[in-house]
Each structure stands twice: as structure tokens, then as C-alpha cells.
UniProtKB/TrEMBL annotation:
Belongs to the cytochrome P450 family. This is Cytochrome. Transmembrane segments: none annotated. It comes from the Bacteria. It comes from Kibdelosporangium phytohabitans.
């Protein structure tokens, strides 16, 4: 238990309501301000997570941000004394039964059930290539357009195919059309919640039909694979669980990559030297054919450009969140039980203590280097590291390789757009406006 002698992390002078309003208006700007004033460990009151029955709300409102590799290591190593599920409620409000919402053994088992689908089990590369071909042909030529909106359509179509490939074509088209309504700053919170509910209901309605003909349909999408585990006697996979798991994968699967790809476009349309190196590496190879698995390793500079983009533009200021069940010492502070630890990759990845010349966009820094999860935190860390990180990198690599080989665009002369919350995730405020040459 915490005592009055424990040193608590410094906190802003504003009222809790002001802290929340300031953070949610400009998460990156607000954490930067706190780090400049208070150093590498500080807390912001982002509100209780509705856990008043189980934790002390006096401390539950404290979200303690950490951003140095040894602090992040301490946070992720405290597996037995932290809960990701309880802290994740801040994100997964409408994905109640999904992997983000469970801890311990059940969490490990669910991850094992999801893992094969996202680690090479399915040939999603061919799916991506076909979708890219169709979508690139439709992107406007000779006039400025927000590439984020186009990327959302593309990444939704691909994730629907990967997760729900056995749905009827019209159902897949409906889902693909619905998903972008869940992540775009132009929609109100109420509109987003309504879209979440609609999609979950749509998925749920299809469960009985798929169960009935499970012998006929392929087992090669995530939906079918979860239903098979359920049919094999895994009682934890109820209809509600399958519904929420499928929704969580569809949502995280399209929105994160669309935002991150938009940042790549925003960066490379302003950096002719980076684009020239990418063009030299990619060449003509992927204009008309997919990137083969054995060629993935060849594109070091492209891979490094994706890492460098995720370093400067993580999708969130909250890259890993864990509710403390017991006090934890971090540097001079004893963080009380009930607090929520936050791994803030935005701060660590822009710190001169962690990266050399952090403000510069230099993909070279990642070429030929091993990624250290406590230094590069765009995918979170520890036992809950992003389930879809391999898939996300492969999808982004494929789309970018085909864009670099097959599209040409005007160089942008305007400053890089500010980051803006699009839904759960952060993307370029202007939705990354680009102009393709005819
Ligand atoms: C650029 C793309 C992506 C980024 C930057 C990203 C980032 C993250 C982060 C920071 C976390 C939290 C990890 C933690 O708590 O330690 C996470 C978790 C998760 N991600 Fe991703 N993600 C991406 C793509 C995807 C994709 C494509 C999928 C699925 C298709 C996905 C599915 C998930 C799931 C299910 C979790 C929860 C894992 C758990 O709690 O065990 N993500 N992701």
C-alpha cells in the first residue's frame, strides 16, 4: 500500500477537468508541456475508468506518464502486478469482450488463437496487391486530395477480406463502407459510437449463418477461425466475444495503418532526398506484381522509413496503459496502486536522451539496426505488444512499394500538418493532402 511518505509524481496545476480538456484537445502538445515542466515522470488526471468499486479513485485518476527505456522496462516487467485489461477500457469501450479487455491466462490463450492469422497464416499479400491496383486506379490525378480518406477505404477493404473473407461479397462491401465512419475527426463522438454499434450488430447477425455452414466455408479468415475454436469446445468464445473480437480487429486493423500511411505520405512528399532513395531501392519491381515474402527483407530503406515515421508520429500518446495493482518504484517515485502507468512513445521517441538528433527525419538511423522495444515503442510492449504489428508493417510496405513504383506526385511546399485526434488515433490534421501527377 502507498503511504504518506511516498513521493508522488508531479502533476499540472490545472483542475482535473482542465487537464482532461487540455490533454484530449492536443495530447502531444500537452504531454510535451508537462515533460518540459516536470521531467520524465509526471501524472495527468485523465479521470477514473469507472473502476470505483475495485480501486481507490483518489489515485485512479492519476495517469503516470513514463518515457525513458528503463522506466518502460520497469512498467512492462511488472506483469503480475498490473492489469492491461482494466486500463485499456479507455480505448476498447465498445470492444468489451475482445483481447484488449482480458488479462492473465485467458489473454494469453486468446492471443495464441489470433496469432496465426496475423503471422503469415494467410496470404494477405495477394489480397493487398489486388486491392491496391484497383484503388490506385481510382485515386484522382492532377488535383489535390486528402490521401487519408483514400487510404481508409483501401485498408478497410483489406482488413475486411482478411478477417471476414468468407462473408458474402455484398456483406464485405457493406462492412468496408461502414468502417471509415469509426475513425475520422469529421464525425462526432455520438456518430462514432453509433457506427461501432452498427458494425458489431452486423457482425453478430452473421454468426448463426456461418456456424450453420461451417463445413462448407473455408477456415482461412479470422472470423471462421474463431468460430472453429468455439466449435471445438472453447466455451470462452461466446457469440459476444466473437463479435467484439472481430470488431476490434477490423477497427484497429484499418485505422492505425491508414493514419500511419498518411504520415508516410506527408513526410515523403516533402523530402525529395528520402523519396529518391526509396525510388532507387524499389525501382520498377512492384509496379505490376506483389512483393514476395522472400523480398520483404530487401527493402531496408522502406522498412526504415516506416519505422522513422512511426517514431515521430506514433498513433497515440498512450502507447501502453497498465493499471497498477501494487505500488511500483520508478526512479525517485513510488507510484501508488490504482494509478495507471502510461508508456508515452511520443515523448521517448522525440527525446535527445534516447535518439540522436530526434527532430530530424532520418530513416538511415534504422537501417541495419535491431529494434529495441524499450526504445522504439510505437507498438507498445511486453505481453500485450500489438497483435497486428507484423501484418501492419507488411501492409504498409506493400502499399508504399506499389505507390513508389507506380505513382508520381507533386512535391509539397507547405509545412508538415499538425497531429489531430481522428478517433482513438492521431493522424495528420489536413488528412495528408497530396497531388498525383496525371
Ligand atoms: C501502424 C499500425 C499499428 C500500430 C502503431 C499499433 C499500435 C498498437 C499499440 C501501441 C498497442 C498497445 C500495446 C500495449 O498495450 O502494449 C496495440 C495493441 C493492439 N493492436 Fe495494434 N497497432 C497497429 C496495427 C494493428 C493492426 C493492423 C491490428 C489488427 C489487425 C492491431 C491489433 C491490435 C490488438 C488486438 C491490440 C491489443 C493487444 C492486447 O491487448 O493484447 N494493431 N497496437
Amino acid at each position: 500500500m502507498s503511504t504518506t511518505h511516498d513521493r508522488l509524481p508531479p502533476t499540472p496545476v490545472e483542475t482535473p477537468e482542465e487537464q482532461r480538456a487540455n490533454f484530449f484537445t492536443d495530447p502531444f502538445g500537452y504531454v510535451e508541456k508537462q515533460a518540459a515542466e516536470h521531467g520524465t515522470v509526471f501524472s495527468i488526471d485523465l479521470g477514473s475508468l469507472g473502476n470505483e468499486d475495485t480501486v481507490d479513485v483518489e489515485v485512479n485518476g492519476r495517469w503516470v506518464f513514463v518515457s525513458r527505456p528503463h522506466q518502460i522496462r520497469a512498467m512492462y516487467s511488472a506483469v503480475r502486478t498490473t492489469s492491461g485489461a482494466e486500463a485499456n477500457q479507455v480505448f476498447f469501450g465498445t470492444m468489451e469482450e475482445s483481447v484488449g479487455y482480458i488479462d492473465g491466462k485467458a489473454h494469453r490463450r486468446r492471443r495464441a488463437q489470433l496469432h496465426p492469422a496475423f503471422s503469415g497464416g494467410k496470404d494477405y499479400i495477394a489480397i493487398i496487391q489486388q486491392a491496391v491496383d484497383r484503388h490506385f486506379a481510382l485515386w484522382p490525378r492532377g488535383k489535390a486530395f486528402p490521401v487519408f480518406e483514400e487510404l481508409q477505404k483501401l485498408t478497410s477493404e483489406v482488413i475486411v477480406e482478411v478477417v471476414c473473407g468468407n462473408f458474402a461479397a455484398e456483406d464485405r462491401a457493406t462492412l468496408t463502407g461502414m468502417l471509415p465512419r469509426t475513425e475520422n475527426a469529421k464525425y462526432t463522438v455520438d456518430q462514432v459510437i453509433a457506427a461501432d454499434k452498427e458494425i458489431r450488430a452486423f457482425v453478430e447477425q452473421r454468426i448463426p449463418g456461418h456456424l450453420a455452414k461451417s463445413d462448407e466455408i473455408g477456415q482461412d479468415d479470422v472470423f471462421a477461425s474463431l468460430l472453429r475454436h468455439a466449435a471445438d469446445g472453447d466455451g470462452s468464445l461466446t457469440g459476444e466475444v466473437v463479435r467484439d473480437e472481430v470488431f476490434s480487429l477490423l477497427y484497429t486493423g484499418f485505422s492505425t495503418t491508414a493514419n500511419s500511411l498518411s504520415w508516410v505520405f506527408a513526410e515523403i512528399t516533402r523530402r525529395p532526398e528520402v523519396l529518391a532513395r526509396l525510388r532507387a531501392e524499389v525501382g520498377e519491381r512492384f509496379r505490376d506484381r506483389p512483393l514476395r515474402r522472400d523480398e520483404f527483407g530487401d527493402l531496408d530503406y522502406l522498412e526504415a522509413t516506416i519505422s522513422e515515421t512511426l517514431r515521430l508520429h506514433p498513433v497515440s500518446a498512450l502507447n501502453g496503459v497498465r493499471l497498477l495493482k501494487e505500488p511500483l518504484r520508478i526512479d525517485d517515485y513510488v507510484i501508488p496502486a490504482g494509478s495507471i502507468l502510461v508508456h508515452c512513445a511520443y515523448l521517448s521517441q522525440r527525446s535527445a536522451e534516447v535518439y540522436d538528433q530526434p527532430e530530424e527525419f532520418r530513416p538511415e538511423r534504422f537501417v541495419g539496426t535491431q529494434i529495441d522495444p524499450y526504445v522504439f515503442g510505437a507498438f507498445g510492449g511486453g505481453q500485450r505488444t500489438c497483435v497486428g504489428r507484423g501484418y501492419a508493417r507488411a501492409e504498409m510496405k506493400m502499399i508504399l512499394a506499389m505507390a513508389i513504383a507506380g505513382l508520381d506526385w507533386e512535391q509539397s511546399e507547405t509545412p508538415l500538418p499538425a497531429a489531430k485526434q481522428q478517433g482513438i488515433f492521431m493522424g495528420p490534421e489536413d488528412h495528408a493532402v497530396i497531388t498525383l501527377l496525371p
